[in-house]
Design brief:
1 helix; mainly beta; three-stranded antiparallel beta sheet; Immunoglobulin-like
Protein backbone atom coordinates (compact mmCIF):
# COMPACT_ATOMS: atom_id res chain seq x y z
CA UNK A 1 0.00 0.00 0.00
CA UNK A 2 2.87 2.39 0.80
CA UNK A 3 4.32 1.91 -2.71
CA UNK A 4 0.95 2.72 -4.28
CA UNK A 5 0.63 5.91 -2.20
CA UNK A 6 4.19 6.93 -3.15
CA UNK A 7 3.53 6.26 -6.86
CA UNK A 8 0.33 8.35 -6.76
CA UNK A 9 2.31 11.20 -5.18
CA UNK A 10 4.94 10.99 -7.91
CA UNK A 11 2.27 10.99 -10.61
CA UNK A 12 0.62 14.08 -9.10
CA UNK A 13 3.98 15.92 -9.15
CA UNK A 14 4.22 15.52 -12.93
CA UNK A 15 1.72 18.23 -13.65
CA UNK A 16 3.64 21.25 -14.90
CA UNK A 17 2.53 24.65 -13.73
CA UNK A 18 3.76 27.75 -15.49
CA UNK A 19 3.77 31.43 -14.73
CA UNK A 20 0.23 32.51 -15.63
CA UNK A 21 -0.11 29.13 -17.40
CA UNK A 22 1.87 30.49 -20.35
CA UNK A 23 3.83 27.23 -20.50
CA UNK A 24 3.09 23.71 -19.32
CA UNK A 25 5.19 20.55 -19.28
CA UNK A 26 4.67 16.79 -19.02
CA UNK A 27 7.33 14.09 -18.91
CA UNK A 28 6.96 10.38 -19.59
CA UNK A 29 7.62 7.96 -18.07
CA UNK A 30 7.49 9.39 -14.55
CA UNK A 31 9.48 6.42 -13.26
CA UNK A 32 11.82 4.19 -15.26
CA UNK A 33 15.00 2.12 -15.17
CA UNK A 34 18.39 3.48 -16.20
CA UNK A 35 19.46 4.15 -18.86
CA UNK A 36 16.14 5.87 -19.50
CA UNK A 37 14.63 7.64 -22.48
CA UNK A 38 12.52 10.56 -21.36
CA UNK A 39 9.91 12.20 -23.61
CA UNK A 40 9.07 15.76 -22.60
CA UNK A 41 6.10 17.59 -24.09
CA UNK A 42 5.65 21.32 -23.68
CA UNK A 43 2.80 23.63 -24.53
CA UNK A 44 3.33 27.37 -24.80
CA UNK A 45 0.84 30.14 -25.44
CA UNK A 46 1.89 32.10 -28.54
CA UNK A 47 3.08 35.61 -27.72
CA UNK A 48 4.87 38.19 -29.88
CA UNK A 49 7.60 38.45 -27.21
CA UNK A 50 8.48 34.71 -27.13
CA UNK A 51 11.84 33.90 -28.73
CA UNK A 52 13.15 30.64 -27.23
CA UNK A 53 12.20 27.67 -25.10
CA UNK A 54 14.83 25.91 -23.00
CA UNK A 55 14.12 22.47 -21.53
CA UNK A 56 16.42 21.09 -18.82
CA UNK A 57 16.62 17.73 -17.03
CA UNK A 58 18.82 17.97 -13.93
CA UNK A 59 19.44 15.45 -11.16
CA UNK A 60 22.26 17.35 -9.48
CA UNK A 61 24.68 14.71 -10.76
CA UNK A 62 23.61 14.73 -14.42
CA UNK A 63 22.38 17.54 -16.63
CA UNK A 64 20.83 17.49 -20.10
CA UNK A 65 19.26 20.43 -21.94
CA UNK A 66 17.81 21.41 -25.27
CA UNK A 67 16.57 24.68 -26.75
CA UNK A 68 14.27 25.61 -29.63
CA UNK A 69 13.64 28.94 -31.25
CA UNK A 70 10.15 30.41 -30.91
CA UNK A 71 8.89 32.80 -33.54
CA UNK A 72 6.48 34.86 -31.45
CA UNK A 73 2.83 34.26 -32.37
CA UNK A 74 3.84 31.98 -35.27
CA UNK A 75 5.58 29.48 -32.96
CA UNK A 76 4.00 26.04 -32.58
CA UNK A 77 1.95 25.59 -29.42
CA UNK A 78 3.47 22.20 -28.65
CA UNK A 79 7.02 20.87 -28.79
CA UNK A 80 8.41 17.43 -27.97
CA UNK A 81 11.90 16.77 -26.63
CA UNK A 82 13.57 13.38 -26.15
CA UNK A 83 16.43 12.87 -23.73
CA UNK A 84 18.10 9.47 -24.11
CA UNK A 85 20.34 7.39 -21.85
CA UNK A 86 19.60 9.21 -18.61
CA UNK A 87 21.41 7.61 -15.66
CA UNK A 88 19.66 6.95 -12.35
CA UNK A 89 18.57 9.92 -10.27
CA UNK A 90 15.71 12.16 -9.24
CA UNK A 91 15.31 14.67 -12.06
CA UNK A 92 13.73 18.09 -12.03
CA UNK A 93 12.50 18.88 -15.53
CA UNK A 94 12.12 22.57 -16.34
CA UNK A 95 10.73 24.42 -19.36
CA UNK A 96 11.59 28.12 -19.66
CA UNK A 97 10.21 30.55 -22.22
CA UNK A 98 12.71 33.31 -23.00
CA UNK A 99 11.61 36.68 -24.38
CA UNK A 100 13.14 39.21 -26.76
CA UNK A 101 14.90 40.85 -23.78
CA UNK A 102 16.53 37.45 -22.93
CA UNK A 103 14.54 37.33 -19.66
CA UNK A 104 12.49 34.32 -18.52
CA UNK A 105 8.84 34.98 -19.39
CA UNK A 106 7.32 31.71 -18.15
CA UNK A 107 8.47 28.64 -16.26
CA UNK A 108 7.09 25.15 -15.64
CA UNK A 109 8.47 22.20 -13.64
CA UNK A 110 7.88 18.49 -13.22
CA UNK A 111 9.78 15.58 -11.67
CA UNK A 112 10.75 12.08 -12.77
CA UNK A 113 12.69 9.27 -11.12
CA UNK A 114 15.16 6.99 -12.89
CA UNK A 115 16.27 3.97 -10.85
CA UNK A 116 19.06 1.44 -11.25
CA UNK A 117 17.89 -1.89 -12.71
CA UNK A 118 17.34 -4.40 -9.91
CA UNK A 119 17.04 -1.68 -7.24
Amino acid sequence: MHARTWLCGVMMMTTGVGASDKVSITASPTMSFAPATLVIKTRVEPDPENREMDVVADSGEFHRSSAVQLDGVRAPRTSTFEFRSLPSGDYEITAMVIGVDRQTRALAHTHVKVVEPGA
